[in-house]
Amino acid sequence: xxxxxxxxxxxxxxxxxxxxxxxxxxxxxxxxxxxxxxxxxxxxxxxxxxxxxxxxxxxxxxxxxxxxxxxxxxxxxxxxxxxxxxxxxxxxxxxxxxxxxxxxxxxxxxxxxxxxxxxxxxxxxxxxxxxxxxxxxxxxxxxxxxxxxxxxxxxxxxxxxxxxxxxxxxxxxxxxxxxxxxxxxxxxxxxxxxxxxxxxxxxxxxxxxxxxxxxxxxxxxxxxxxxxxxxxxxxxxxxxxxxxxxxxxxxxxxxxxxxxxxxxxxxxxxxxxxxxxxxxxxxxxxxxxxxxxxxxxxxxxxxxxxxxxxxxxxxxxxxxxxx
Length: 323
What we know:
Blueprint: H1 3-6, E1 9-13, H2 18-29, E2 34-36, H3 48-58, E3 62-65, H4 73-78, H5 80-101, E4 105-109, H6 138-158, E5 162-167, E6 169-171, H7 184-197, E7 202-206, E8 212-217, H8 218-231, E9 238-240, E10 245-247, H9 248-259, E11 264-268, H10 283-289, H11 297-316
Parallel strand pairs: 1-2, 1-3, 3-4, 4-5, 5-9, 6-8, 7-11
Antiparallel strand pairs: 8-10
Helix pairs in contact: 2-8, 3-5, 5-6, 7-9, 7-11, 9-11
């Protein structure tokens, strides 16, 4: 139990989503007794009037903004306008309305997609503005990046305590395994598992397997967000990552082995690779609020594969249900 969380009325946007559900679990374990999750059916946070209604109803003292329209390379290429507009307007309205409502602290989950396409490795927060993001997810990355500008501007003019975090690629139980909108790890797990069950001899993957990525287990990300909410009160953005970089081809081989798929991997080089490399400098989060990821990639992948196996029927059901 943590006295910090007992004294706050906390609103978590996106609290029923992938990352949000894990943050909510940790909040409850930490003793948060006044916890509010605005549901999209009741509050369309892309509209300022709806954001105002949420603040009037819940009266939070602390907001953790996790709600976002997200997806993999395919989804970002298909709907760049939606990814920009929905993410930008939602964050802008929520921060402005929080300021007007007298919210004591606002925590923004940004995105690693905000970094320049050819950023020096490892990505350091000071290089965030030194180039344009990778083209396939630039609209999403820039929309979320504007919330950093807003947070810093509001701190400078109004003394508004908003902090901005940059989580690296997340994975883990309750992720989206949608083949069109999902991210790389859940999509690989689903493709290999279904190929094995259907006795398919080949799995086709996007790109050539050469890009690298860093992954953070979702519960580690939730831990980092809560630590930042408790202990961090500065304007500078902060990376949240594991500090471990892996090639996509090696990742695919790992997941292939864990799922038991014995067939062939074929790379479709007509499809984009995305950003060439992603690896974070995680020293600032450790220095500022003592965050360090604890889950190894292999252990986290095993847990995610197991969760998919246990929930496969629900995931593949044509009826949409919440986990």
